[in-house]
Each structure stands twice: as structure tokens, then as C-alpha cells.
Design brief:
- The protein is built from six helices and seven strands.
- The protein has a seven-stranded mixed sheet with strand order 1-2-3-4-5-7-6, sandwiched between helices.
- α1 (19-29) packs across α2.
- It is globular.
- It folds into two domains: 1-114, Aminopeptidase, CATH 3.40.630.30; 123-174 and 204-235, no CATH class.
- The protein has 235 residues and is an alpha+beta fold.
- The protein binds coenzyme A.
- Coenzyme A binds at residues 29, 86-88, 93-99, 121, 124, 126-127, 130.
- One of its GO terms (cellular component) is cytoplasm.
- Residues 5-157 form the N-acetyltransferase domain.
- Residues 181-217 are annotated as: Disordered.
- This is N-acetyltransferase domain-containing protein.
């Protein structure tokens, strides 16, 4: 298979000697301060979040990091994993390594007991679509809120329209005022009322009273209101 030779997936915390290389790959793509990046990477552990490295052994016998992914749990879906920070070293893209990284990450998740993978992306829907991911309603990440923004049709590549149909069919699960709250700690005060919307942030039109999303509703959303799209795959 394309790009498979000499590859293996390992956890970062079991190979801390690769943390600098990993940080460089991530920071070349998404620049962060060294402190912030180290803080995030150093949380990798077997119980999640888990940073995974795709390693390649070169013809000279050296081992180099060529990609990274990060798995986490989802507070409301114990059987599902959240994947983020998927990245392949810039000079190695387009050679099949991204597919290898994702396939192996999914296998790691499956062996860890997860049956579904979720992710969000701004611009890599085609890549994920080729790997079997389909659009889905927003999911709750710990501490975040459900994003009710929908997918403007012009953003959907024709080969992924199946995913859009799936979204329309499943959209009724996103209720009119449904909010995702972080898990409540025992004895914690009830959550505060939601903050008023920030006028500087573009908002999609309100959901129809029935909570059923129609074709019209989706097309009325301006592209500028797009933040990210959620995708899922059953393992
Ligand atoms: C997205 C990324 C991980 C893909 O890795 P890659 O090694 O280039 O991908 P692959 O070569 O394995 O591609 C697998 C398939 O997806 C396709 N593909 C990959 N990136 C694509 C893109 N941006 N647009 C369309 N198709 C794409 C390839 O053509 C290939 O298709 P094929 O199997 O039919 O030949 C890589 O481009 C990357 O690191 N990007 C920057 C970080 C990023 O955006 N990460 C995603 C955050 S959500």
C-alpha cells in the first residue's frame, strides 16, 4: 500500500524523545508559543488525551516523526473519540501518509474501546470524506457548546452530498435551544445563563420553531458564518 513501509504509530508519552520534532510539525502548521505547545503535548497519557505520532524509519535506519494526531474522550458519548490536531509534515503531504495516520489512529481508538470517531474541520472535508467520514450535527466537546451553524451548500463538495443528506435527516436532534453544558461537578452551582450573542460574530438565522431544518434554512446562511464542520465515522 502507498506510503506504508517503515511506518508505525506510537504514543508521544512513550516516546518523549520526539517531542521537539512533534512540536515543530504542529507549530509549522498552527503557530503557538513553545510554552503553550509543551503544556498541551505534555498532557498526553494512556487515559486521554493521547498524542499519537506517525514514525518512519528511513533507509539510513533513522527514525523521524512524519505526523501527529490527538485523541480525546467526549463527555456525552463514552463510546466515541474526538480526533484533532491531525497533521503531516509539510514536505511529505500528498504521499498517502495522512491516510496512514488516520487509519492507524482509528485502529488505536477501536482497540481502546471506541466505536465512533468525531472531528471538526474548516477545510479538509474532502480528505476526511475519502476516509469514510460523513457530516454530522455538532457534538459537545468538554467545556464547549454545541455549534448550531449549518453547512452552506456551496461549501459541500459534490462527492460528499451524501453527508449533507445525512445531516438534514439527523438535524432534528439539534433542538431549538439545545445547549451543551460541561459535565456538572457534584455540589457545583447551576450553570449561569448563556451570555448574550456577540454582535461582532456573525450568526446563522434562528432555527425554525419546529426545530426541523429545511433546505431553505440551510441555504440562507452566509458563508462568513461558517466556522467549522463536524464529521463522524463508525469504526
Ligand atoms: C490534511 C492532511 C493531514 C492530509 O495528509 P496527506 O498526507 O496530504 O493526505 P494523503 O496523501 O494521505 O491523502 C489521502 C487522500 O485524500 C486526498 N486529499 C488529501 N488532502 C486533500 C485536500 N486538501 N483536498 C482534497 N483531497 C485531499 C488525497 O488526494 C488522497 O486521495 P486518494 O486516496 O484518492 O489518492 C495534510 O494535508 C495536512 O497535514 N494538512 C495541514 C493540517 C490540516 O489541515 N489538518 C487537518 C485539520 S482538521
Amino acid at each position: 500500500m502507498k506510503g506504508e513501509e517503515g511506518l508505525r504509530l506510537v504514543t508521544l508519552h512513550s516516546h518523549p524523545e520526539h517531542i521537539e520534532e512533534c512540536m515543530k510539525i504542529l507549530n509549522d502548521q498552527w503557530p503557538r508559543s513553545r510554552t503553550m505547545r509543551m503544556r498541551s503535548l505534555s498532557t498526553s497519557c494512556d487515559q486521554f488525551p493521547t498524542s499519537l505520532l506517525l514514525l518512519k524509519t528511513t533507509s539510513h535506519g533513522d527514525t523521524e516523526v512524519i505526523g501527529h494526531s490527538r485523541l480525546n474522550t467526549l463527555p456525552r458519548e463514552p463510546d466515541a473519540a474526538w480526533i484533532e490536531s491531525v497533521v503531516i509534515r509539510q514536505d511529505l503531504r500528498g504521499a498517502g501518509y495522512g491516510r496512514q495516520l488516520m487509519t492507524r489512529t482509528e485502529e488505536y481508538a477501536r482497540i481502546s474501546g471506541f466505536s465512533t470517531m468525531y472531528l471538526s474541520t474548516h477545510d479538509q472535508q474532502v480528505f476526511y470524506g475519502k476516509l469514510g467520514y460523513e457530516f454530522c450535527p455538532p457534538v459537545c466537546i468538554y467545556g464547549g457548546s454545541v455549534n448550531k451553524h449549518l453547512i452552506p451548500k456551496q461549501f459541500i463538495p459534490p462527492q460528499l452530498t451524501k453527508g449533507v443528506q445525512a445531516l438534514s435527516l439527523k438535524s432534528s436532534v439539534v433542538g431549538k435551544d439545545q445547549k451543551c453544558q460541561p459535565a456538572m461537578k457534584q455540589g457545583a452551582p447551576p450553570p449561569a445563563s448563556p451570555a448574550p450573542p456577540d454582535p461582532a460574530v456573525p450568526h446563522p438565522p434562528p432555527l425554525p420553531a419546529s426545530s426541523k431544518l429545511t433546505k431553505d434554512h440551510i441555504t440562507k446562511i452566509e458563508p462568513s458564518s461558517m466556522t467549522k464542520m463536524y464529521m463522524k465515522k463508525d469504526l
